Every structure is written in structure tokens, then in C-alpha cells.
Amino acid sequence: MENQKEINTLCMKLTKIKKVEFLKEAGYGQRLDKEVLQKIKELAMKEGITNATEMKSHIALFVKSKYSHIPKSNRRFHPTTQDLRFHISSALKSNM
């Protein structure tokens, strides 16, 4: 009975480790690139771009011109719309 508990515990720990590794590979948990973050702040504060969809297209052009080989699946350089909403809001709040 005790061995069964140890085996179950070990299996659960391995599952958690694999899940964390998968999330890291998928781009979750990555911080936004500093230059991309700076560009978001610049566009939000100086250009007045507060629409996340519009910001996404500007950031895509910026990343493509600066780093031509970054895949769109890399969230470090291609943030989601929700990520952009958060960073636009943060930029505008820090400007107040």
C-alpha cells in the first residue's frame, strides 16, 4: 500500500514537471522583449495608439523590420491581444 502511494506521488510530480516544460516551450512565462515593450509604450504615449488590434499590427511591422527571422508563435516578440491591452494600460497609467 505504501509503495502504491509513493508511485502515485512520483507520477504526479513528473506530470507537473512535464507540464511546466511544455508551457515554457509554448512561450508561456516568457517576458516581453525590452525593445518591443519600449515600442508599445512609445506608440501608446506618443502616438496615442490604444487599440490592441492596431497596436498588434504596428508591433508586427516593428519586429519584422528589426528581427526578420522571429516566428509569429514566439510570444516574446509577438504578444497576444490580451498582453497588448495590459501593456497599453500600464503605459498609460505610468504616464499619469
Number of distinct helices: 4
Tell me roughly what share of residues is in helical segments.
55-70%
Structural class, from secondary structure content? mainly alpha
**What best-fitting shape do the alpha-carbon axes yield?**
elongated
What's the structural domain tally?
Answer: 2
Number of strands: 0
Strand content: under 5%
The average pLDDT is 83
Q: Measure the end-to-end span.
A: 62 Å
Largest sheet: none
Radius of gyration: 19 Å
Quaternary assembly: single chain
As residue ranges, the low-confidence spans are none
Query: SSE order, as H and E?
Result: HHHH
Structure at a glance:
With 96 residues, the chain is an all-alpha fold. The chain folds into two domains: 1-29; 34-95.
Secondary structure layout plus pairing:
Layout (H helix, E strand, L loop, with lengths): L1 H24 L8 H12 L6 H15 L14 H15 L1
Helix pairs in contact: 2-3, 2-4, 3-4
How would you describe the overall organization of this protein?
The chain has 96 residues and is mostly helical. It is built from four helices and no strands. The longest helix has 24 residues, at 2-25. The chain is elongated. The mean pLDDT is 83. InterPro entries: CaRF. One of its GO terms (molecular function) is DNA-binding transcription factor activity.
Keywords:
96 residues; mainly alpha; 2 domains; CaRF
